[in-house]
Amino acid sequence: MGFRWLLQAWVPRRAARLCRAVVFDMGGVLLPSPYARARDWEVWNRVPPGTVQRALICGGDDRPWMKYVRGELTAAEFVQAFAQQCFEITNSPVPVDSFLSDLTSKEMSEQLPVMTEAIRCIRAEGLKTAVLSNNFYLHSGASFLPLDRKQFDVIIESCREGICKPDPRIYMLCLERLGVQPNESIFLDDIGQNLKAAAQLGMSTLKVDDPEVAVKELENFLGFPLRGAVPFTRSVRPTMEIPQVPLQKYLENVLGSHTTGSLLVRQFSHGQSNPTYYVEYGDHRLVLRKKPPGKLLPSAHAVEREVLRALAEAGVPVPRVLALCEDSSIIGTPFYLMEYCAGHVYKDPSLPGLEPSQRRAIYTAMNQVLAQIHSVDLKAAGLEDYGKHGNYVQRQVQTWTKQYRATETHTIPAMERLIEWLPLHLPQAHQVTLVHGDFRLDNLIFHPERPQVLAVLDWELSTLGDPISDVAYSCMAHYLPSSFSLLKGLGNCDLTHLGIPTAEEYFRTYCGHMGIPPIEDWNFYMAFSFFRVAAILQGVYKRSLTGQASSATAESGGKQAESMADLAWDFATKEGFRVFKAMPEQNHRGGSLLTCPGVCSLYCCDGSVDTVHPSRLRQGLGLG
């Protein structure tokens, strides 16, 4: 069993593209062109053609428009100054206030769909995005920014910065906040002088006259498609491409020869150890899952397909399997097709943007579906032979100890203690059930409008085993910091304020769903979970020392393994203390254990200290 979110995060990547960021102007690029709108407005208001454009571009840096976008004029002051400028051009009154209202109307505030889709594709490839706009304040005092801010890493508004394009400083400010060099970016604008200034700094540039054409030109520059955006997918990596002609013929046979249209194939970018693709053909939206060459046991896919079918029949929400292809000549290896399940995947366990009651409902639904998985009748589902019965945790401890020893590069004290402690402190046997093996929040697809799990994903690590290992694994994020690079955590979050249950509450809720007594030894399972993660990270650290990763990455990997081992030992200590308190003639005051040569001190919550002989403490900790 392995953790794909760890392995994927540390796989050395091919050299990054030169371009790391795409910077967009707003009006005329992301939004409809203000110049085109000005021409229409002039016709509607019988203003001489070209008046607005002339006023916008003429008069030097102190003209009303430039002062307005630098934040030096309020909306009312701009209307007055701009009206005077237009009067001087036309020698007649111009209703400038209505022009500003028209410029910020609903029609002018809707982002162009072709750009929205392009941004999704760009971000799916790992590139950064930014807005660099000569923007202005409205009569309300707010700036005119009718965009979803989550689409962008950086937003630069001239009225807030006090400088505007084509001043080189505003470009450099944007690049600095993006953390990229000029030659690592491309800038899209509809005004030539703004592009010229960017080019002089070393930025690549693209003039936008027609957004559709501009997106095609940007595609050519970036080297990947900017259409067909699907959440959590990206363009297919060059080393993982699949032949589309034979695939299309196969789909015609499976879906019916009447299916027409172009074939769209994208690759899922999130947490996939096996290549998984989004396939769209005609009206059909599918997921294609294949094994890497040389990795497939003869019956592996057939077993996985039958497991998903058995789970569906048992009422577990899983994607519906449509077909299994065992002919390697089609795309290189056997594969199977599933229906694509549209919904929401929560990557951040803190669930930003939701209300506390909504967050609690999401975690309750997650807990319920895990209990549902563990309640599957193995005999009725035909899964009695899906794995070995009994001693699951013991086998796992042995497996990961061997893995750790095989990749050991230096002594990690906490790992040495765990390797001694875990086998001596195995929990009493729990019920043997189906276990998912990788059950966590971001492996669930939720209904977009209510707290309902539509599908549980990534079943290739499933087997028969101890269900409490799944529960503990799904609580790991509770003890990791939000800044943890491999799996965003909740360790520094106020769970009560957020409405998210604590790990203890999550375990209690699970027991209620399963109708079982409280799990007294849950700290052991947490120690076991973090021990496995530490062993995996140590293996990744060992591989990084071959020179395929930078020394900084290698050092970071080593520190991550040690921190996970320390976390595991913290839980082992808590479990040992629980056992210690339960022993006869023990002091039952809560506290933590610190060891000294010859004695062990029990530091209690009230500040007092009890001294315990170390042999007695070792017995309580399960070390003999």
Rg estimate, integer Å: 30 Å
| Biggest sheet statistics | 6 strands, antiparallel
So, the CATH homologous superfamily of the domain at 356-582? Aminoglycoside phosphotransferase (APH), C-terminal lobe
What structural category characterises the helix and strand content? alpha+beta
**What distance separates the N and C termini?**
30 Å
Tally of helical segments: 23
Keywords: Acetylation, Signal
Protein name: Acyl-CoA dehydrogenase family member 10
Domain Aminoglycoside phosphotransferase: 265-481
Organism: Crocodylus porosus (Saltwater crocodile)
Kindly describe this structure.
With 624 residues, the chain is an alpha+beta fold. Among the domains are: 233-339, Phosphorylase Kinase, domain 1 (2-Layer Sandwich); 356-582, Aminoglycoside 3'-phosphotransferase, Chain: A, domain 2; 588-624. Helices cover 43% and strands 13% of the residues. The protein is built from 23 helices and 18 strands. β4 (185-189), α10 and β5 (204-207) form a beta-alpha-beta unit. α14 packs across α20 and α21 (522-544) runs antiparallel to α22 (551-582). It starts with a helix and ends with a helix. 35% of the residues are buried. The model is unreliable at 7-16, 548-552 and 586-617 (pLDDT under 50).
